[in-house]
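Thread amino acids onto this structure.
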């Protein structure tokens, strides 16, 4: 978290970038090739940020992919002959002009070190397989030093999470708000007509421009804070992994600074500020998908802060959904982000940072911090109703794609607002194929203590159910209307139909939203 002068940024020089792309392709500098070279043990260790097994495996290899991974990710100093062999088209002079490497020392023929990380990235979406290269600032694996406050991150866990939950339907105009090195914008380019990426950091935008050029993708990049660069514009999709980390604003040790994920606001005020303006930038039918943290203060419900942020949007007819994935107590939270910046408990700055973090959270009586997803959707046509605000704590992640799951759930919110109970009863819902029933019984007893409807996909939800709800859901195969199925269940169980409707219909609405039942 303490920072020296900013590291150099890559340069977009057309001929050199094209030469680099050709060399990376010819040298098979791809995720699959790296996995082959490393083997399962070293690969797993590297994912845990333990580089030693990878260094041992790669050091004797002359394969171009091995040389490039050692140089750009593992921080190795390599001979000029090795770089010439790995990048024969670009050459050393081209790599120097792009700002990728620098000599170690001033002697002629001095070996070379990387100035930035350049890593292969693979993924898959509806358009097929993805094989890209992503440039970012060097990690602590390469430098052995804490990350600076201006650090431009590569593809981290949060980036992967946001990419997994973002809808991927064909769309028009997309905004990647706080784009960093541009990974979300690159993904959006595969299903959007036009992509705009914004960031306050000039260095981040330089990396985004380089990554776009290297991968042959067109992006429009603009500098500015939050939504200032897109004032007056609307978008069909907005994605954002904003600098949401809750960090102290004062510190006694002037040599220590805060995490590169810090948004420069006290507490969780940055998200509050952002969500006040963001709904106004959603076009009809447009959605926003964000990651975030929020404070949970003593005596408050976990969703007090995100509800306060989202409620104004619902007045304008925008549907909003908050999903809390996990919570951390103040000490856990401070540990998470101090370590994320590359500082360990053995560092002299650890107690200073930890104390400041705990003091800051205690001053606002924060007892926990929530992590999760914030979703917004403006209905596609003008409607005369307030938006729906949902908050939910999700237990985990099931099979399938969360992007499709969440997009369908947001559309269902809109559909259900147009269905009264009579229309719902006249519909023909279908139980999702991944839903099973789980019964908990005392050994030797026939009657269950608890019945649960369990979701295999989505967030792997488990919903308590009584006999009538379980029987109704089990019979929903689209043949009969919901009303007909419920009437049959009531006849078999000798339950009053009106009383059953009052209990079962709201429960079915919830199952429709969570995609355990579909229309």
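Threaded sequence (519 positions):
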């Amino acid at each position: 978290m303490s920072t020296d002068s900013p590291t150099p940024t890559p340069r977009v020089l057309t001929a050199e970038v094209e030469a680099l792309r050709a060399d990376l392709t010819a040298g098979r500098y791809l995720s699959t090739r790296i996995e082959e070279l490393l083997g399962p043990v070293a690969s797993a260790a590297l994912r845990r940020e333990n580089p030693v097994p990878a260094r041992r495996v790669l050091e004797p290899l002359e394969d171009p992919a091995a040389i490039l991974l050692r140089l750009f990710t593992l921080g190795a100093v390599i001979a000029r002959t090795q770089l010439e062999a790995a990048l024969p088209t670009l050459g050393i002079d081209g790599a120097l002009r792009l700002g990728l490497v620098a000599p170690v020392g001033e002697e002629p023929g001095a070996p070379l070190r990387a100035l930035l990380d350049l890593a292969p990235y693979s993924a898959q979406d509806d358009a097929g397989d993805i094989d890209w290269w992503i440039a970012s600032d060097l990690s602590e694996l390469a430098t052995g030093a804490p990350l600076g406050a201006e650090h431009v991150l590569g593809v981290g866990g949060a980036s992967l999470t946001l990419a997994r939950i973002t809808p991927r339907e064909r769309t028009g105009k997309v905004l990647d708000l706080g784009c960093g090195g541009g990974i979300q914008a690159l993904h959006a380019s595969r299903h959007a007509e036009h992509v705009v990426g914004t960031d306050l950091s000039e260095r981040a935008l330089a990396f985004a421009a380089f990554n776009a050029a290297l991968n042959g993708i067109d992006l429009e990049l603009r500098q500015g804070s939050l939504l200032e660069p897109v004032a007056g514009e609307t978008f069909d999709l907005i994605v954002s992994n904003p600098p949401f980390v809750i960090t102290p604003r004062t510190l006694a040790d002037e040599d220590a600074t805060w995490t590169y994920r810090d948004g420069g606001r006290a507490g969780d005020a940055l998200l509050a500020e952002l969500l006040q303006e963001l709904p106004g930038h959603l076009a009809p039918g447009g959605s926003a998908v964000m990651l975030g943290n929020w404070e949970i203060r003593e005596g408050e419900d976990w969703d007090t802060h995100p509800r306060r942020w989202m409620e104004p949007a619902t007045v304008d007819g925008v549907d909003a959904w908050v999903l809390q994935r996990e919570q951390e107590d103040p000490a856990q939270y401070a540990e998470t982000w101090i370590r994320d910046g590359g500082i360990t408990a053995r560092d002299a700055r650890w107690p200073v940072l930890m104390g400041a973090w705990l003091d800051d959270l205690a001053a606002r009586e924060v007892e926990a911090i929530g992590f999760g997803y914030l979703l917004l959707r403006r209905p596609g046509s003008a409607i005369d109703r307030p938006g729906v605000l949902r908050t939910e704590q999700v237990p985990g992640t099931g099979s399938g794609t969360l992007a499709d799951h969440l997009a369908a759930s947001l559309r269902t919110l809109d559909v259900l607002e147009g269905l009264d109970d009579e229309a719902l009863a006249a519909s023909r819902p279908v139980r999702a194929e991944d839903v099973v029933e789980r019964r908990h019984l005392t050994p030797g007893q026939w009657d269950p203590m608890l019945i649960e409807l369990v979701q295999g996909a989505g967030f792997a939800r488990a919903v308590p159910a009584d006999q009538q709800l379980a029987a109704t859901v089990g019979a929903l195969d689209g043949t009969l209307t919901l009303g007909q199925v419920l009437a049959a269940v009531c006849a078999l169980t000798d339950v009053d139909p009106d009383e059953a409707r009052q209990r079962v219909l709201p429960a079915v609405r919830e199952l429709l939203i969570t995609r355990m039942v579909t229309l």
